Amino acid sequence: MATLETGSVPRLRRGVRLSYDQTRETHVLLFPEGVLVPNPTAAAVLSLCDGVEDVTAIASALRERYAGVREEEILEVLSRLGDRRIVEWT
Prior knowledge:
alpha+beta; three-stranded antiparallel β-sheet; two-stranded antiparallel sheet; 3 helices; globular; PQQ biosynthesis; PQQD
């Protein structure tokens, strides 16, 4: 896998979908291998992984909603999700 950096552009892999479960009042990540219930931080990051915006832009958007957002933490979340084949980089 390529080294991730702030200029990396993440997107959900083909077949992966983030949706909101009204019954459980939480986000659910659906992918061919199963279902994952991401924590609120991961859900916020995933919602911005559109294949257009890079990590710097995602961090900027998250800073408008949350205090203390660091690009390094976003890269860490994306790296773990990449290991699970949920996100990829363009």
